[in-house]
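G., the chain you wanted modeled:
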Amino acid sequence: VQANVPSGDYIQQFPGFRPFVHATQSEVSTAAFEKHVVLGYNNSAGLHVSPNPSGPGLIVDRVRLSGFAASSDGGKTWTNGFLPPSHGATQTFGDPSVGVNRHGAFYYATLGADALGRGTVQVNTSHDGGFTWSEGAIVQQDDASDKEWLAVGPDPANRHRDNVYVT
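Predicted structure as tokens:
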């Protein structure tokens, strides 16, 4: 079963420019809890280009590259979307890493930007099987970050609590 919804892919065409094909989903990360499955992936459908309103050329007016797919029936059907950025920010840049704790809370680490446009690593949380996500919590401000990774596991000091680790 295809997890991404092909109707969300699109092509933008502008006179004098090559077509912009927004149909790439890549670098998939997966986590599962009971019948809930969450995929994180880079999704070029979250990149949008527009004519420059103040001059010649084109501008990128939306960058939401951190896509997800969620299933509550073991992967038979899927719902797709884009992760929210961190508070006050507008961009996510992909490189997903997805995990889940022992209680079914899903976590999604991704590259993004803060409200000032600086590069970040953020973590979003879902308590409904990956269908909705919190805004990103910034865990590191780093303009040169690439391919963060996330792990979830028992807290060594309190075995009843799970920790989220990001490198």
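The mean pLDDT is 96.

Shout if anything looks off.
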